[in-house]
Input
Amino acid sequence: MTVAAANLLVFGAHALAPLRLAAADEPARRRWAVAALPLLLGSALLTLFAIGSRPDDAIAWGLVHPIDGSAPAKAIALVGAALLLADGVLFVSWRRFEPSAWRALAALGFLALGAQALGAELLRIGYGPWSGTAAVFLCAALRAPLALAAAETAAGSPRLWSLVAGPALVLLALFWPASLRMALARDLATLAAAALLLAGARFAPPSLRRLAAAAGLVLALLFLARSAQLSRTLCVHETVHEFELQPNR
Output
C-alpha cells in the first residue's frame, strides 16, 4: 500500500502542480523544479521493487520487459521516460519556462498519470478475471481522480478532485467483474466510508477537511489493496494476456 500511496501522490502532483505553477511566483516554481525529478525517481524505484517482489501480476500483462513486452508496457515506459526527461529539463532550465511550457508539462503529467493508472489496474487484475479492454481503460480513468485528490490534499484544502474521487471510486468497483464484486461484499463498508469521506471532505469544517480527505484516501487504498488480493484468489488461468478484446486465457 505504501507504493500505491507514493504513486498516487507523485503522479497526481505531476499533473496538478505544473498547471498551478504556470501563474505562480518564482520561489514556488523553484521548489517544484528541485523536487519533481527526485520524487519521480523514488516512485519509479519503489514500483520496480514492488513488481520484482511479486512479478506474476506484471507477467500476466507482459509488463516485466517494456522494450519487448506488451503494448501497454511499451506505452507506459515511453510516457514514463518522457516525463523523466521533462523533469530533468525542468531541473536545469526552470527559469526559462514560460507559462505555456508549464501548461505543456502539466499535459504530460496528466498523460503520465493515465499511464500509471493503467499500469495499476493491470497489476490489480493480474491473472484474475477482467471485463475486456474497454473496461480496463475506463477503470484506469476512474483511478486517476484518487491521485489528483491526493495531490490536492497534500498541497492544501480539498477541493474539486476529492469531491470527484469519491463517486469515481464507487464507479470503479462497479465496473469490475461480477465475481470480484461478490468477493468484495464484506469490504463494502470500507468502500462506502472512503467514498463518503472523500466526497464530503470539501464540506467539512475547515480544520477537518484535510483530515477527512486523508482518511478517505487511506481507506480507498485499503480497498484497492484488498481488491488486488482477492483478484489473485480468483485466478482464471496462468496464461499471458493479449491486450485485445479477447484475452488469451
Observations:
- The chain has ten helices and no strands.
